[in-house]
Design brief:
The chain has 262 residues and is α/β, with parallel strands linked by helices. The protein has two domains: 198 residues, 2-enoyl-CoA Hydratase, Chain A, domain 1; 47 residues, Orthogonal Bundle (Lyase 2-enoyl-coa Hydratase, Chain  A, domain 2), CATH 1.10.12.10. The chain has ten helices and eleven strands. Helix 2 packs parallel to helix 3 and helix 3 packs across helix 4. The longest helix has 18 residues.
Length: 262
């Protein structure tokens, strides 16, 4: 694990400490609405974490009182479909394909594509003041950036349809009740809680976590027999790693394991 680093971007903050990369959407005066600069920065940050062996876990959050208000409606677009295909969709796919755990620390409203961004993360923690709003219908648009794919899988088709069609907000407590987030914490403790969880994951076996993420992502799309076979394939890979040998040795020696990612 490398030392602490901080990189400069225009519309986000990117910091690495103790093998945890924290990506902070940083347009607080605009409720972290996404403009071209933020989308470019976010894509570059995700790509950077993928290529950095010193990063084992990623945390995504927002500066100020919002996680992300979605697309900045003041920004002109040459075409919605083109913009989605060229910027938003690659961001979502890159997050899902990242072989590292990604935690969304939702500190306020996550609306539109901002909600989709949170949905694309592996684990969602929410501050008590957080909420999720599928706001697309309020401006005569349809869910995008993966919202129509993620949401039914996370909360079920009926609630997903209600949230999309009514555009009613889902408060943090209700998001916890329906399983959209794994925990809700007081506003002032959100980043402390996210960091504690990230540090726990950062000392895990990186290859095993990556393979587990793949299995979880694939499971909704396949039957039980195919899932069992895929698990067996992944276990063959994991069982040949140095980290597996280290884990067994640590267990037998009654000591914490020291995983290296090999």
């Amino acid at each position: 694990m490398s030392g602490d680093t901080e990189d400069s971007f225009t519309a986000i903050r990117y910091e690495v400490a103790d093998a945890v990369a924290t990506i902070t959407l940083a347009r607080p005066d605009a409720l972290n609405a996404m403009d071209a600069a933020m989308r470019s920065d976010l894509m570059a940050a995700i790509t950077g974490t993928a290529d950095d062996p010193a990063v084992r876990v990623v945390v995504v959050t927002g500066a100020g009182r919002a996680f992300c208000a979605g697309q900045d409606l003041r920004e002109r677009t040459a075409g919605f479909g083109r913009e989605l295909r060229e910027t938003y969709n690659p961001i979502i796919l890159s997050l899902r394909r990242l072989d590292k755990p990604v935690i969304a620390a939702v500190n306020g409203v996550a609306a539109g594509a901002g909600a989709s961004l949170a949905f694309a993360c592996d684990i969602r923690l929410a501050a008590e003041s957080a909420s999720f709003v599928l706001a697309f219908g309020r401006v005569g648009l349809v869910p995008d950036s993966g919202a129509s794919w993620f949401l039914p899988r996370l909360v079920g088709p009926s609630l997903a349809a209600e949230l999309v069609m009514t555009t009613d907000p889902l408060a943090a407590a209700d998001a916890l009740q329906v399983g959209l987030v794994s925990r809700v914490v007081p506003d002032g403790l959100l980043m402390d809680e996210a960091r504690r969880l990230a540090l726990r994951l950062a000392v895990g076996a990186p290859r095993a976590l990556a393979l587990a993420k793949r299995a979880l992502a694939r499971s909704p799309e396949v039957g039980l027999e195919e899932a069992l076979e895929y698990e067996a394939d992944l276990q063959d890979v994991a069982g040949q790693t140095a980290d597996h040998a280290e884990g067994v040795a640590a267990f037998l020696e009654n000591r914490p394991p020291r995983f290296t990612g090999r």
